[in-house]
Amino acid sequence: MNLLATLGAAAVLTAFAAALFAVGASVYGLRAGHLRAQLAARRAIPAIAGLLTLAIALLGYALLTNDFSIAHVASVSSREMEPRFKWASLYSGQPGSLLFWTWTMSLFLAAFVRLSVPRLPWCAPHAVATAGAVLAAFLFALAFFASPFRVSAYLPADGVGLNPLLVDPGMLIHPPFLLSGLVSTSVPFTLGAAVLLAGRMDGTWLRHARAWALVSFLVLSVGNMLGGWWAYTVLGWGGYWGWDPVENSAILPLLPMIAFLHTLMVQERRGMLKLWNLVLVEASFALAVFGTFNVRSGLVSSVHSFAQSEIGPYFLVLVGLTVIASLVLITWRMPGLRADVELESLASRETGMLLNSYVMTAIALVVLGATLFPVFSELFDGSRITVSPPFYNDVVGPLLIALLALMALGVVLPWRGTARGTLLRRLRAPAIFVVAAMLALAALGMRDRFALAGTGAAIALGFVTTREYVLGTRGLRRATGRPWFAAFAALFARDQRRYGGYMVHLGIAVMAVAVIGSNIYQQQTRAAVAPGESFQVGAYTLTYNRLFAERPGRNGIEVEVKADVTVRRGDDVVATLEPGRRTFTNFPQQPVAIVAIDGSFTRDLYVFMQGWDESLTAEFQAFLNPLVRWLWLGGAIYVLGTRVALAPRRAPERAAVLAPDGALERV
Which of 84, 427, 542, 651 is such that its CA lies 20 to 30 A from the CA of 464? Predict the structure, then answer.
């Protein structure tokens, strides 16, 4: 018996037993008032994280040392792979990705138990029991259905190697962020379930929930953005989001989490939306578990999914149990979830945030329904009808425009409402600016109504958000006498939560403009040309000069065939590109595109080669994608804003002004 495999399997099984112990000891300690049992249960969660860290280390060591006696290692790695890709192969297969998923979940829950649970004594046993139950559910699957330490029936001389699509540096960062983001939703879920179990549904839990929800929002957002970047630079279809079913599963938990981060402010300030906030955190985790099921069930066809196996039905049951348990708890505590006050005015920030959350929920329901539509169509009609990207664009697109408009309106609207005249004064400047901007865009040639509406909503969001920075900076400058830049920087020291959130809004506005420009105004061409011939895309002429081959001799790559392509605009040479195809030794029937991109701040020239014939005539596909760099820039602003909002809150800096007697006074 392989010692390493035995130790790894034992670590997983012991972690499962520790999770069951955490549940049992918490329940016993709560019922019997036994504090030592409660403390022991609390210590079990970090112990689980330690055991799974050992399991990850053992599997990583097996990959690095080419221990092909372990089935997972033989199926995803090979001798000629670089060490960095051997590590990446850990989470490329189903058992390894499930181990990585459960390990990162244990780290999040251990941090939660260490940092937040001691500050929540009234629901600590409930939180630990819920954390133990969540971990036990995944550890059961890991121990009995998809063990990454299963020993091969025979010892192969070499492993299969990594899937060709995954042999890319993006593989080192995209899956870890995305998987970590998905499992991070377990912490707000655990806290929400503990609140319901304890029966204390006031706002005391929100401060802790907000911090963990922001962490989840940040990590999951980065994971999705990296996924878009990886698809754009690797898959070779000219875009960054294709409404793939597994892409949809990755973004679904993010939508209720974003909604929760907005509506929790309504509960903090006004004591409203208690029920809705708990629904959102429970739904976010349920959708994350659904994503796990979707990837592993073979239910939908996707370039990201694993093969169908017995683990799929298990996760379907787990999704059902998560939803049922959440509904039972919420129904049980419904009487205690009534709002403290009634909504005073429809023209208030509370209304804006509530509508904002409803639109995000509508988007989530549309995406979920369209993702599962092929299953339902086959069930009821016998034919499997796949929902194509145009459907998502036609249905989700208007909802996203409405979301941008509501975000802009939410910045303008005051809490609790205001007089009609005051509200009109607040709306006048943004309305004039947006109308003027849209007229200017129409005069410059923008005729698409969807593009005009979306760009107008993004401009409105950018304008009202920038105005908040200007007003805040001007007020602080008048109070302190600081220069403009120093006063602007001081805004974040005074209220990083508010101004970090505004930065996220600015990032979304920039990203929205990029998405509209790169989709509606994309140009593309497909051409088969011989060496020396040219073809056109937009204002650019691409000349195919020659075909040449390289043999890297690593990571399973047998040969890379590239084309030498010169790009001209008029008589000027803009760039020399080398699109091509990469063939792998162990996957000869699965060549992968080598994408060539010449990027600038206004556009990307995106070229890849479909193939070639014996006469060296090659077929190319070229895209001219406007404003794609703005997407990555907006994403960077978005992430930076989230990081600012996540920073520990400090006491507001008080401005120094002159008192009537001439002495300095703090205000």
Answer: 651
With both helix axes pointing from N to C terminus, report the angle between 206-230 and 628-646 in degrees, rounded to the nearest 10: 160
Sign of CA dihedral 648, 651, 655, 656: negative
Q: Could you give the CA distance from residue 288 to residue 181 in angstroms, rounded to a whole number?
A: 9
> Helices 274-297 and 174-184 meet at what angle, rounded to 10?
140
Residue that finishes a domain, picked among 140, 167, 194: 167
Which residue stretches of 231-348 are H helix?
Answer: 245-251, 254-270, 274-297, 311-332
Burial 442-457 (b: 16+ CB within 10 A, else e): eeeebeeeebbbbbbb
Structural domain contains residue 562: yes
pLDDT of 400 > 90? The answer is yes
Q: How far apart are CA 168 and CA 662, in angstroms?
A: 66
Q: What tens digit of pLDDT does each residue of 311-326 get?
A: 778 888 999 999 999 9
Rounded Cα distance between 611 and 616, Å, is 9
Backbone angles phi, psi at 522, to 5 degrees: -70, 140
Q: Tell me, what's the pLDDT at 313?
A: 82
Count of the separate structural domains present in the chain:
2
Query: Rounded distance, CA 391 to CA 359, Å?
Result: 17
Structure tokens at 265: 């402010």
Helices 124-144 and 186-198, packing angle to 10 deg = 130
pLDDT in tens, 429-445: 999 999 999 999 999 88
Query: What single-letter amino acid sits at 184?
Result: S
First to last CA, the chain: 72
**In a 10 Å sphere around its CB, with 0-12 CB exposed, 13-18 middle and 19+ buried, how is residue 354 labelled?**
buried
**Other beta carbons within 10 Å of 266:** 25
Q: Check: CB of residue 552 under 8 Å from CB of residue 560.
A: yes
CA-based nearest residue to 603, from 638, 567, 645: 567
SS (H, E, C) 592-634: EEECEEEECCCEEEEEEEEEECCCCCEEEEEEEEECHHHHHHH
Distance CA 604, CA 621 (A): 14
What is the DSSP secondary structure assignment for residue 439, as one 8-state letter?
H
| Number of residues that this document lists for the chain | 667
In a domain, 267, yes or no: no
- At residue 142, the pLDDT reads 93
Q: In what order do the strands lie in the sheet with 618-626?
A: 523-529, 618-626, 603-612, 596-599
Q: Which residue has the higher pLDDT, 455 or 650?
A: 455
Q: What is the pLDDT of residue 209?
A: 93
Q: What does the alpha-carbon distance between residue 295 and residue 293 come to, in Å, rounded to a whole number?
A: 6
Residue 72 placed within a domain: yes
Strand pairing class (596-599; 592-594): unpaired
Enumerate the β-bridge partners of residue 625. 604
Structural domain including 95 reads: 1-167
Assess contact for 378 and 273: CB atoms under 8 A.
no
- The confidence score (pLDDT) of residue 94 equals 85
Q: Rg of the chain's alpha carbons, rounded to an integer? A: 27
CA distance 290 to 316: 7
Task: Name the DSSP letter for residue 151.
Answer: B
Bridge partner residues of 609 (DSSP): 620
Cα torsion through 454, 459, 465, 466, rounded to 10: 160
Instruction: Tell which of 167, 184, 212 closes a domain.
Output: 167
Pair 155, 69: CB distance under 8 Å:
yes
Beta partners for 567? 542, 575
Q: Tell me: the pLDDT tens digits for 221-236?
A: 999 999 999 999 988 8
In a domain, 7, yes or no: yes
The per-residue pLDDT for 543 is 96
Please report, for residues 181, 253, 514, 523, the alpha-carbon distance to residue 397 in angstroms, rounded to integers and kept in the order given: 25, 19, 14, 20
Q: How far apart are CA 549 and CA 583, in angstroms?
A: 11
